[in-house]
Design goal:
heterodimer, A: 251 residues, mainly alpha, 2 domains, 9 helices, rod-shaped, B: 398 residues, two-stranded antiparallel sheet, two-stranded antiparallel ribbon
Amino acid sequence: MGNLRKYMPVTHITFLIACLAIAGIPPLSGFFSKDEILVAVVEKNIFLFGVQYLVAGITAFYMFRLYFTVFWNRDKNYEHDPHESPNVMLFTLIFLAACSALAGLIPFSQFVSSNGESFSTQIHMNIAIPTVGIALAGIILAFVLYKKESVSPEKIKNSLGLLYRSAYRKFYIDEVYIFVTKKIIFNMISVPVAWFDRHVVDNTMNGIAYTTNFVSEKIKYMQSGQLQQYAFIMVAGMILIFLLTLYLIIV
Amino acid sequence: MENFLYTLIIPVILFFTFVFTGLFGSKFKPAVSGIICTASVLISAVLSYWTAYQYYFIHGKVNGVYQIINVYKIEWLKFNDTLSIDIGILLDPISVMMMVVITTVSLMVHIYSIGYMKGDSGYSRYFAFLSLFTFAMLGLVLSVNIFMTYMFWELVGISSYLLIGHYYNKPSAVSASKKAFIVTRFADLGFLIGILLLSAFAGTFDFNELTNPNGNAILQSASVTFMGLSAITWALILIFIGCAGKSAMFPLHIWLPDAMEGPTPVSALIHAATMVVAGVYLIARLFPLYVFTSPAALEVVAHVGAFTSLFAAIIACTQTDIKRVLAFSTISQIGYMMVSSEFPDTVQKKDSVIWHQCFICLLMQCLKLYYSWEPDQLYMRFIRMKLTQWAISGNICQ
């Protein structure tokens, strides 16, 4: 994929605006929010500020990596010619591009705050300039690597080695989840529980059913449904009880 | 005081649209359901702009302070004199702003989907779920009560599951939707326990009372401790786990990159508009509680956020699939927002929320354009092929 700007000019421009906005280039919206976050962070916790500052640079880099790879670069052979989308889709793109471009100019601090009172914010040059600086550095790095290709990304990839590979595999978090769920939870807990269920619980219940069945099988002939037989047994029983009582009284 | 009762229409109309399109959508031509849903979102959007105008510029401010307005509130389930679950609509600066953002982005996604989903066999089903999702998100941000938030939170979860799994005959989409559902469900368990713990001390679910600096919630909770942290800190950390699940914070972020299996406008809606900022929204909503009772919990939030943003940014640099890059970019930006929540002016965060939504939505939609050059009916197969091609070409480009 590459060189799409020829085929999709509107998409190209809107994507570029979005990338610039997310990289935090003034006066697009991302600049303002990033600035405010960083100003708030630097006063409280310098370590978090460092992390966030670094992330600002990385963000600019990966967005422009995407941008240069998709829209510039060499022409590729497409199976079908890429073409611009229908107007209904382009409308939403342009609307949202306008949002990301202009929304930073709305003074949101006038409207939204934690206690309902509005307060004013201003741009802090001592934070804003280095932040834009690192964003530009990220963009330039992406430009050098993916547009001009004067330094081969392949080399950097190889020199980073393990870090690159593990980041590529998303630091193996998915694998860790699979390991924990499959190997530990399934194998160590679920499988024994399933065995217990299948063998102990099931066999207990089956045993009860089997015993009941076996006993009923044996005694079912007593209930033949023949009235004569019942009457015979009843009378015989009565006689037996009568004789037994007689015997007991006499003795 | 202006009567804001008409704001009730904003979420409710979407619910009726969902029921109508869900039940009768197949009786009409597919385009009809698309138009009905888009029209109702348009009505919601216009009404929410009107509400925002009325709230921010005319009636909301009393003595220079924006008021919290309970537009509508009915008692739904009463436990005792103080503890009850209410259903209603709460307007304050944050919820009004989120309402505007959600309806706008949802409107854009609806309009976009009219073009994108053309010819799809599940057209009306898709639009019905889209309405349900928007309804759930609006209910979440407008809720008066943390338990109501929880109910809509779950509804958001279920509707995102339905949307991610839209192409249900595609195994990867099915497993992605299950993954999203199950991972967030685990997080929601933390959220539920957190709510119960919190309400056990505060004796209320109501946001007004929970966030009142002189209220019960804050006074009664500091005394009980468990493992060196006060009970309220535990409650807030547990609530944050719920937020982390929805907002894809490490280590619960794993569902988000896979959620790209859904139709692209859905990814835009889930990533941009709404679902992932629900967590940030909830932290912002409970912000006074975090600040006054438990700075330790905020520390946790900020550090998890910082770690996630760095972690996801590094991954994003190495991915070769556009959608994955954007997914990790989302995670990273949300982490950024979470960091800002350590610091007592929610404005920065909300600012960031709204910008982020605009960017990501835009990016997702741009992205979609690559797909749409494929007019073929065997569309999904081509996307597969394209993805592999890109992966390869991405590798070459590197």
